[in-house]
Each structure stands twice: as structure tokens, then as C-alpha cells.
């Protein structure tokens, strides 16, 4: 299974990274470009510690039904910033809110990027409480699953508190925690899989 974090980097990202490193768990972070103005050193730490960095647009914009030029700018600007700061070849993209359309897919294909959605939404962005976040993560656990959490976009103290129990709970169920690229390499999607 792959643990993923959206909306960072933020003041909570280093706490999340420290937990992941201490527990020897891999993860992928989908960054919002505007946050790199304040947290560029956090992105460098993510890269230095072997975490995967993906693109989550420049301003956390909902892309569906917007112009191709707007979508391209949102995707390209964030990826270019991350690459300038040391993230090698940003090739993963997660659309904010899961909103995308055929234009988004065309742009990603032209950029050689892979769209990454999720199979388990912990709902941590709503701040439902640590136990609710853990329960949601474990309830949706499936081989090949992708868990959605957040390291930015608001108070993420509940996510930080929930993370050790999520990691331990998944490991007790014999799941190995990998980055999204490791997951795709180990279990690639079928060539003609229908889009969601």
C-alpha cells in the first residue's frame, strides 16, 4: 500500500517525515506550488530522505471545466518549481478534489505525467479526530491501495497523531508500505483500464 500526503509542504510536513523515517515507512507527497515559497527547504528534505514528490497544482485549483491554458499553467508551474528546488523529474500528478476532465488527461499525457487518485480517503482534512482517521485508513486497506492524507492545508495535528497507529495497523495486516512509483512498478494498472 502507498501512503500519500496532499497540500504541503507546511509546518506539519517535517513532523510527518520524522515519523515516517523513524518507522521506516515510505510515502509520496503531492505538493502545492505556492507553498514552496515558504517551505522550499522542506521539499529538499523530502527529496533528500527518498520520499517521492508529486504535483498537486500551483494553487490547489479545481481543474475540471477550466481552459486548457489554465490547467497547463497550474500543472506546469508547480512541477517546474519543484524541479528547480531539486525534486527530480516530477512525473506524478494528483488533481485537487479529484476533479479533472479530458483536457487534464491530454495535458498530463503530453507532459509524460501519471495521474494518481486514491482508494482510501481518511477524511483527515475534516479533522474528525485521531481515532476516526485511523479507523478510516484501516477500514479501506486493500492490496495495491493508495491512502489519502494531508500534510498541509490547515491544522494537521490529528494526522500526525494518527500516523503511527495507521502504519502499525497496516503492518499488522501484512501490508508493505511503498511509494506510488514502487506500487505502480510492482502492480501496474492494466493497459486498457477504463478511467474512473
Structural account:
The protein has 196 residues and is of the alpha/beta class. It has one domain: TIM Barrel (Alpha-Beta Barrel), CATH 3.20.20.370. It is 42% helix and 13% strand. The strands form two sheets. The chain has a five-stranded parallel beta sheet with strand order 3-2-1-7-6. Strand 1, helix 1 and strand 2 form a beta-alpha-beta unit.
Keywords:
two-stranded parallel ribbon, globular, alpha/beta, 7 helices, TIM Barrel
Counting DSSP E segments of at least 2 residues, the number of strands comes to 7
Estimate the strand proportion.
5-15%
The percent of residues in helical segments reads 40-55%
The main sheet comes to: 5 strands, parallel
Q: Regions with pLDDT < 50 over 5+ consecutive residues?
A: none
Strand order of the largest sheet: 3-2-1-7-6
**What's the CATH class, please?**
Alpha Beta
CATH superfamily: Glycoside hydrolase/deacetylase
How many domains in all?
Answer: 1
**Integer average pLDDT:** 95
| Cα shape | globular
Integer-rounded radius of gyration? 16 Å
Secondary-structure class: alpha/beta
CATH-scheme architecture: Alpha-Beta Barrel
Q: Enter the CATH topology name.
A: TIM Barrel
Name the helix and strand elements from N-terminus to C-terminus, one letter apiece. EHEHEHEHEEHEHH
Distance between the termini: 20 Å
Tally of separate helices: 7
